[in-house]
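Reopening this ticket.

The earlier resolution said the output was attached, but the attachment link was broken on my side. Pasting everything inline this time so it's all in one place.
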Amino acid sequence: MSSDENYSVFRECLSSAIVARSEKPKSSKRRPKAKRNGRKEEPSEIDSGLPDRVDPEELVDFVDVRSLKIHDLLLASPQFIAAETFTSFPEPLRTLSYAAIQHDEQIASRYVPADAETPLDRRVLEALCATIPGTVPDTLATYGLIPDANDLSDFFSPIISEYATSVTSAPPVWSATRTDACEICDRDWIPLSYHHLIPRSVHAKVLKRGWHDEWTLNSVAWLCRACHSFVHRMTSNEELAREYYTVDRILEREDVQDWAKWVSRVRWKAK
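Inline output:
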């Protein structure tokens, strides 16, 4: 995954944590006691001024904003906090991926916990939080999302664990990647077959020359028979392995785009 893709994952993990902490706890309602005259006393409701579920972007209406600068930050809080925090992380953490931890066990042991529920080593976590700009804990504290700026590590611990385990998850088994439509022409009413994006006939050469990692060899695309045949006609298996090992790379070719437009209009006549 690229750094931009990883940032999107981190932002979602952060946003989920903010939303979870912004929810107003539900109070248990007690049944009103009956008066002596037999009439029930209507329960009095106390308006806290907060909706049942607080929108993080609207929290500015319910907190004590101490300055115009903080006010501006609160209006775009999730984006601001994510950007400020993510860019402060070291490069190996920003570009973390399944491929990266296959090549560097130290990165895996340092940044990737056993699962999303397991926190990072406390020293690693505190070192990461020490580089986060001070505006981030100030904003979180102003929101009431952390008691004070010193609780930054506890706030980010589950977020970083969830992020790290998400971006380093192993690729799915090829059968689990099946699509409903051909990944080139987008027709969904015809049978599909799987195309090895790195043709099996050149697997040995691929590994010998280091073009790809072994765990990528069984990557597939789900194509209709017409598109499958077209891909194998367009170039050699070796070139497919070296240059066209993803669907996106295949679709960048102009001849593939022209083919997809044409074949997508082909429909078999009913018997």
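Reporter confirms the inline version is readable. The longest helix spans residues 3-22. Confidence is low (pLDDT under 50) at residues 43-76.
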